[in-house]
Write a structure and sequence with these properties.
Elements: H1 35-44, E1 58-67, E2 86-95, E3 110-118, E4 121-128, H2 141-148, H3 159-167, H4 173-180, E5 194-195, E6 200-203, E7 209-218, H5 227-236, H6 240-250, E8 256-265, E9 291-300, H7 305-310, E10 323-324, H8 329-345, H9 421-429, H10 432-446, H11 452-465, H12 467-477
GO molecular function: catalase activity
InterPro entries: Catalase (IPR018028), Catalase_3 (IPR040333), Catalase_AS (IPR024708), Catalase_clade1/3 (IPR024711), Catalase_core (IPR011614), Catalase_haem_BS (IPR002226), Catalase_immune_responsive (IPR010582), Catalase_sf (IPR020835)
Domain Catalase core: 8-392
Amino acid sequence: MSSNNRLTTSWGAPVGDNQNSITAGSRGPTLIQDVHLLEKLAHFNRERVPERVVHAKGAGAHGYFEVTNDLTAYTKASFLSEVGKMTPMFIRFSTVAGELGSADTVRDPRGFAVKFYTDEGNYDLVGNNTPVFFIRDAIKFPDFIHTQKRHPQTHLKNPNAVWDFWSLSPESLHQVTILMSDRGIPATLRHMHGFGSHTFKWVNAQGEAVWVKYHFKTNQGVKNLDVDLAAKIAGENPDYHTEDLFNAIDKGDFPSWTLYVQIMPLDDANTYRFDPFDVTKVWSQKDYPLIEVGQMVLNRNPDNYFAEVEQATFSPGSFVPGIEASPDKMLQGRLFAYSDAHRYRVGANHNALPINRPHSPVNTYQRDGAMRFDGNGGGSAYYEPNSLGGPAQGGSQQKIAPFEVSGEADSVAYDHDDHYRQAGDLFRLLRADEKERLIRNIVGAMKPVESDEIKLRQIAHFYKADPAYGQGVADGLGLSVTGMSSK
């Protein structure tokens, strides 16, 4: 047998017998000196890293991004610097609320996280398949996710918590309307759009900045699942989306998306009709039309799910020169929370793993930590500044664009509290049959709620978005909305 195909221990020694433990005679007991047995059992006990708190169930693929339009007037990001430039990337799709073993075809937003391995470091665009979110301040995120998880006593999903929170958080109405519409259950991961959701800042080589939003439009067309069919598939093949993506790529049917951006001049943020950094709102495409950027194509499946999909780590704070943060309060919280989750879940050196490691050179003074598996800097300089020729800062071209800050430090809400106009506009855009399914989905989701007070409070939000919206849900639940106002 060749040495390349010989079973070894984790320390490289050949294994003579992998079928039988070392025992004292044929009936044992087993000897503690069977270190191969002990190593196998001990490693098996530690094969699982902590599950992601959100986005636990996911599927991933490799591919590339190709620039099709010159947008250097807006950003100096190197991977967008010329038409035809191609950048390798990895994407992870996911559900939000379910556990690692949950079904793919549940009603839930889908994570849409893209890692671009650019020549100036990794750029992570960590969004969803919806352009908005349920809340707009990161301080509410732990509470929101608690409502999506299991009751601490019964360990069952809790519709009372879900709708109690939403009814007391009217900013959620826009996203709730999307979630409960046909778009709440995509047919496959290939047949849905993706969005950066947040507002970001682009900066060009002259230091001029604009605000930007990202839209990935599926080239396969948008397709959604019927509620009853989705439930049937969830029972028969809970990994349906994962399987579909793998099989499509495996047979050469490579899915693709066209990336567009909306671009807003900096000063418009001060005069636009709502706060453009509020992630519960969309920008009108009449005001800021979509501009094509390039094509994303997925053409290679992972070789190992754990190594590439489970250990993949994404952070909205992984920027490259030319792309920066905005004052979006949800984004500001995510800049910290995502990388911190990975430090806990995978380890302090998660960015050194092959799936996360940049394709460009990495020169840091970070040392040590659990699972440091490279040279750890050897004997080179391990502090900065130094006079030993160690890596030095790049200067003004790599610094962020200056921006003004003002005001008193305080716990301050967004200035705009119209949570109903955009949800109502979306409702009115739907065809009659789409409205009917939306209302039926909401009624089905709210029926288990035990409190009529919670139901009526939520119905009032639907009614303010559009009276027909609120009335339809009320009728479905057998509740009266007499005296409700759309004002």
